[in-house]
Design goal:
The complex is a heterodimer. Chain A is α+β, with helices and mostly antiparallel strands. Chain A contains two helices and two strands. The longest helix of chain A has 10 residues. The radius of gyration of chain A is 18 Å and the shape is elongated. Chain B is an alpha/beta fold. In chain B, the strands form five sheets. Chain B has a seven-stranded parallel beta sheet with strand order 17-16-18-15-19-20-21, with helices on both faces. Chains A and B meet through β1, α1 and β2 of A and β4, β5, α7 and β9 of B. β1 of chain A pairs parallel with β5 of chain B.
Chain lengths: 56, 549
C-alpha cells in the first residue's frame, strides 16, 4: 500500500481551505499554515453546462 | 429586542459568500454606527430566512430570496444610519469582510494549485471547510499528493465519503471526517479544540465534541492527550465500514509515547465493532478504553479480551476509566475533581426544584455540541418519559418539527436544519439565543440545559454571547410567578483563550448551575424536574459503570 506524507511524527504543516478562523487558530499555536482561497464554481445554465460537458 | 426602528431588506441575486465571512461582516456593520440596532448579512437558505422573520424583518421581502442569493437585513433608528451601513457593506463585501480585522487572511491566502506547485509549504495536512458538495474532487486531488485531510464540512454525500476514504486508504492517506470538527495532532489542536497538556493518551473519536469533552476533562484531571483523531460520525457505520477508524488505530498503535488508547463513538455497526476488537486483540500493545456511548457492556467478550479492554457508557466514564489505567492517585483525583458523588449533585439542585410551579414539567436542552445531545439522551432514556429530539436515539421520539419543542426536548442545534448557510452554533449564538427566549416563555418548561464549548475555533465568548438572554429569561419567569432553572456545562480547560474560570463565574453570577461534565448536567436537570425523587445511586451506577468495578 502507498504511504502518505509523514503526519504524526513530524512538524505539522497545514493547508487551510475554507474558514479562515481555523487558519488563525493554527498560527496562534505556532503551526506552519497557509490559507487557500476557495470559492464555489459559478452555477451555469444547465443547457450551457451540457454543451460544455460534451466539448470538454 | 426593541420594537421600534426602520427595517431595510436588500436581496442580492446570485451572490455567494461563506457564512463565517458574512458573520464577520454583520458584526462589523452592527458596530459601525450607534444608529444600527440589528444588521444581518446572510445567504438566503430556509433556516436563515426563518431566523430573519423571528428577528422581526418583513417576510414578504425575505421570502423572495433563494439559496444562492445574499440577504442584507438592517434595523436602524433612522434612514441615515441605513444609508451609511449600506456604504460600509459594499466596502466590506469587496474586501471579503477582513478590512476591519487585525489579521487579514488575504495577506497570506492563495489558490491550492499555487501552493502545491510552489512547495512554499511541505504540507502534511489539509483542513477543509467548504460546502459538502465540493469536497470529493478536492479530497481526491489532495490524496493524490499524499496529503492527509481533516474535513470539517458537513453535508458530504455518503457515497462521496466512501469514494474519498477508499481512495485515501489506497494512497496511505488519513481522512478525518467529513464532519470532523476536532483533531489533536502532536498536542496541536486542529479545528475546534482545547488547549491541552501533552501526555500518554491517544483518542480516536467519531465526533468532535466527544473528543473535546474527554480530552478537556482528562486535562482537568492532570492527564495529557497527545493525539486525538476525529474520524467523523459516519465512519463507524456499516456503509463506510470503519475505514478510517481502523487506519487511525494502526497509526496510533505504532507511536511509542502513547500508552492508553480510547475510542469514543456512538455504537458502531456490528461489523465495525468486531473488526476493531479483532485488531486490538491481535495487534494491540496499549491499554484500551472503548467508549461506545449508549452501547452498555458487551458481556459476550471473552475474558481474555476483557483484561485488555475497559468498556464504558458515557464520556465522563471514559475519563474515569482512562484515569484508572494511569494510577490510583489520578483515578481518585478524577473522582474528586469531576464531583462523582451523588450527594454533591443532590445538594446543588435542592433549592432549584423548590422554586418550580406545579405546571413546570419539562426540560428543554439547547445543545451546540452534537455528542452532548446524544449523551444526554442515553442518560435520560429510562429515567424520564416523553423524550423528544431532532436527532433522536434509543427510546427518544423524533420531533415532528425541529423548530417547535415538545415535552422534554433535547435539541442538537448543530444539525443540518439549523446550519444550512449558517456558521455552526459553537461560533454563531443567534439561533440558540432566539430559541432560549422562545423556550423560556413556555409555562410548562422548568429547566433549560445548555453546553458552552470553549477552545480554538469556538465563539470568542460563548457564555457572554447568551448571558443577557439568561438574565432576561430568568427575570421574565420571576415576573410571571415562575422559577426557571438554567443548568449548564462548560467544556474546556483552564488555558483555553475564552477563560474557563471566568466563563463559569459569569454563568453562576447570572444564576445558572454549572456542572463539571455534561453527564452530571443532564442528571441534575432530570433530578430538578423530578423534584429530587430520582434514585441517583442507580443512575450513577448505570452512567459511570467503572465506578462499580
Amino acid at each position: 500500500m502507498a504511504k502518505g506524507r509523514n503526519l504524526l511524527n513530524t512538524e505539522l504543516q497545514v493547508i487551510n481551505i475554507g474558514l479562515d478562523l481555523f487558519y488563525h487558530s493554527l498560527l496562534t499555536q505556532n503551526v506552519t499554515a497557509v490559507q487557500v482561497d476557495w470559492k464555489p464554481r459559478p452555477k451555469l445554465d444547465p443547457k450551457l453546462e451540457l454543451i460544455l460537458s460534451k466539448i470538454l | 429586542m426593541q420594537s421600534t426602528g426602520i427595517f431595510h431588506v436588500l436581496v442580492k441575486s446570485n451572490y455567494y459568500r461563506d457564512s463565517l465571512n458574512l458573520l464577520k461582516i454583520s458584526d462589523i456593520m452592527k458596530r459601525h454606527s450607534s444608529g444600527i440596532m440589528e444588521a444581518v448579512v446572510i445567504m438566503g437558505t430556509k433556516t436563515n430566512k426563518a431566523v430573519l422573520v423571528k428577528l422581526g424583518f418583513p417576510s414578504s421581502k425575505i421570502n423572495q430570496a433563494t439559496e444562492s442569493d445574499l440577504i442584507v437585513a438592517i434595523k436602524a433608528e433612522d434612514k441615515g444610519s441605513i444609508d451609511s451601513a449600506l456604504i460600509k457593506l459594499e466596502e466590506l463585501l469587496h474586501s471579503d469582510g477582513s478590512s476591519d480585522t487585525s489579521a487579514s487572511s488575504s495577506e497570506s491566502s492563495t489558490d491550492l494549485d499555487s501552493v502545491l506547485v510552489s512547495k512554499s509549504i511541505n504540507a502534511n495536512l489539509a483542513l477543509i471547510s467548504i460546502p459538502g458538495e465540493y469536497v470529493k474532487d478536492l479530497s481526491l486531488k489532495l490524496s493524490n499528493e499524499g496529503i492527509h485531510q481533516q474535513i470539517f464540512s458537513d453535508h458530504v454525500p455518503l457515497d462521496d465519503e466512501l469514494i474519498i476514504k477508499k481512495y485515501a486508504a489506497k494512497k496511505g492517506v488519513l481522512v478525518l471526517g467529513p464532519g470532523a470538527g476536532t483533531s489533536i495532532i502532536n498536542g496541536k489542536g486542529i479545528g475546534f479544540s482545547n488547549v491541552l497538556r501533552p501526555g500518554p493518551v491517544g483518542i480516536i473519536a467519531a465526533a468532535g465534541t466527544g473528543l473535546q469533552e474527554v480530552s478537556s476533562l482528562l486535562d482537568q484531571c492532570d492527564i495529557g492527550v497527545k493525539y486525538g483523531l476525529g474520524v467523523g460520525a459516519n465512519d463507524p457505520k456499516e456503509k463506510i465500514g470503519g475505514l478510517m477508524m481502523l487506519e487511525s488505530l494502526k497509526v496510533l498503535e505504532e507511536l511509542p509515547d502513547i500508552e492508553i488508547m480510547a475510542i469514543v463513538s456512538k455504537p458502531p455497526s456490528l461489523h465495525v465493532k468486531n473488526m476493531i476488537i479483532d485488531y486490538i486483540v491481535k495487534h494491540g500493545k496499549k491499554k484500551y478504553v472503548l467508549a461506545f456511548i449508549g452501547a452498555g457492556h458487551d458481556g459476550s467478550l471473552p475474558n481474555s479480551i476483557r483484561s485488555k479492554i475497559v468498556q464504558v457508557n458515557t464520556l465522563a466514564s471514559a475519563v474515569f476509566a482512562i484515569a484508572s489505567l494511569t494510577s490510583n492517585q489520578l483515578y481518585n483525583q478524577s473522582l474528586v475533581r469531576l464531583q462523582l458523588k451523588p450527594e454533591i449533585l443532590q445538594n446543588a439542585v435542592a433549592k432549584e426544584w423548590r422554586g418550580l410551579g406545579e405546571q413546570q414539567k419539562y426540560i428543554r436542552a439547547l445543545y451546540t455540541g452534537g455528542t452532548f445531545a446524544y449523551e444526554t439522551q442515553v442518560i435520560l432514556n429510562g429515567v424520564l418519559k416523553d423524550l423528544y429530539s431532532n436527532a433522536p436515539t434509543g427510546g427518544t421520539k423524533k420531533l415532528p418539527s425541529a423548530s417547535k419543542s415538545k415535552k422534554h426536548s433535547i435539541l442538537d442545534l448543530g444539525e443540518e436544519e439549523f446550519t444550512q448557510g449558517r456558521p455552526h452554533p459553537m461560533i454563531d449564538p443567534t439561533i440558540r439565543r432566539l430559541r432560549l427566549v422562545e423556550e423560556s416563555q413556555d409555562p410548562e418548561v422548568g429547566v433549560i440545559l445548555m453546553d458552552f464549548v470553549l477552545g480554538y475555533g469556538s465563539n470568542p465568548d460563548p457564555v457572554g454571547a447568551v448571558l443577557n438572554e439568561i438574565v432576561q429569561v430568568k427575570a421574565n419567569a420571576r415576573k410571571s410567578g415562575r422559577y426557571l432553572s438554567i443548568v449548564t456545562h462548560v467544556c474546556g480547560t483552564k488555558r483555553d483563550p475564552q477563560g474557563y474560570d471566568e466563563s463559569i463565574r459569569k454563568l453562576e453570577n447570572a444564576g445558572a448551575l454549572v456542572f463539571p461534565t455534561n453527564a452530571l448536567a443532564a442528571i441534575a436537570s432530570a433530578q430538578i424536574i423530578s423534584r429530587g425523587k430520582l434514585d441517583l445511586d442507580r443512575i450513577y451506577s448505570r452512567c459511570f459503570m467503572e465506578r462499580m468495578g
